[in-house]
Amino acid sequence: MVASEVRALFAVASRPEVVSLAGGMPNVAALPLDQIGELVRDVVAEEGPAALQYGSAQGDPVLREQICDYMTLEGITASPDDVIVTVGSQQALDLITRVFVDPGDVVLCEAPTYVTAINTFAAFQAEIRHVAMDEDGVVPERLDEALVRAAREGRTVKFFYTVPNFQNPAGITMTAERRARVLEVCERHDVLVVEDNPYGLLRYDGEAQPTLYSQGSGNVVYLGSLSKTLSPGLRIGWALAPAPVRAKLVLAAESAMLSHSTFNQLVVRRYLRTFPWREQIKAFNTMYGERRDAMLGALEAMMPAGCTWTRPEGGFFVWATLPEGIDAKAMLPRAVAGRVAYVPGTGFFADGRGRASMRLSFCYPTPEQIREGVRRLVGAVEGELDLRDTFGSTLAPPTAGSQAPAPDLP
Asked: What residues form DSSP beta bridges with 309?
């Protein structure tokens, strides 16, 4: 386990005068907090003794039924018996790695991939290998090549980890055609697919794509979360897994934390039963869609020539790449001094790549703050371009074999 390379910088970046385009924090202030407060009081008043007691490592059975109802919005038909509630989907990822990975096993991930997934896989001493992406998602031919290479080396690939919808950090959505091909490749090589889908219902335009789980033949573990569509503070996520895998995950959960917070589960259970949560998700989509549009509009209007960025249909993130010779990681201290923060691309690779790129988050700042943040970011980039033109490239070579990710942010 490693500490963040730029944690001190992000302590500075949390100051109110700094516009943070860094952390993927949902805007929970948009929730009707007075109604949430009443709901919490009702749980204490009506279910207090049960809410404050130990619970099951698999999770509350009623909540698991409600999670199955929730997943129907993604086209998934599931049994509550195959659901395990977790402390956010992050714990589900930890449990899967704990169950499957031995030191030296290979885990395949998209390039780039979720920073805390890298932390988790590295903590269990997996060898993380990246598979190239393009604007349609992971490239199936590169995935097949990675699996063939591992087999030739006598290495065991335990699973392929993917965030197929509005990927964190790149904002890319895997197309339906790619999903079918990825499943075919993994099934042919007898490799598990771990589908992480925390953003799937946060779509602002375009057509929803079928989940890998709904198309797979029993080799997909699906991870879901209410952190983005309700609250990350309640820490409710889940894994939907084939029965043999689910049984092992329950045993791992028991050894890790004995049981979940019964109180939080009963709060969420009541929320899903009594609150118009589907309408709340629609309201989130309207709000985040406006912020996405503010980010894309500001980038289009202000970023210097040579900069490129993704155009996500949903989720929280834009992936930007700087002009040739500019190092986003080296630029970060000067950007923070200019009162704007972002996440350098190096945090999303296990091998030191990504120095020319950055993740920009639009979920938390207001549209006005986003536009001002981009204006400040442009000032930092233009300063780096002046340095490059005067002294040459500021881009440092990648550190071979490095598995130390940058900021440990959602």
From this structure: 320
* Burial of residue 397 (number of CB atoms within 10 Å: 0-12, 13-18, 19+): exposed
- Residues 6 or more apart whose Cβ sits within 8 Å of residue 169: 112, 113, 114, 115, 317, 319, 343, 345, 348, 359
**Helices 262-274 + 61-71 axis angle, to 10:** 50
Q: Reading across the β-sheet that carries 192-196, which strands appear in turn?
A: 83-87, 236-240, 220-225, 192-196, 157-162, 106-111, 127-134, 137-138
In this prediction the pTM is 0.93
What does the block give as tokens for 160? 């392929």
pLDDT tens digits for range 134-143: 999 999 999 9
Q: Cis bond leading into 304, ω under 30°?
A: no
Is residue 220 classed as helix, strand or coil in its secondary structure? Answer: strand
User: How does pLDDT run across 284-311, given as a tens digit for each residue?
Assistant: 999 999 999 999 999 999 999 999 999 9
Tell me the two tokens of residue 285: 């989509």
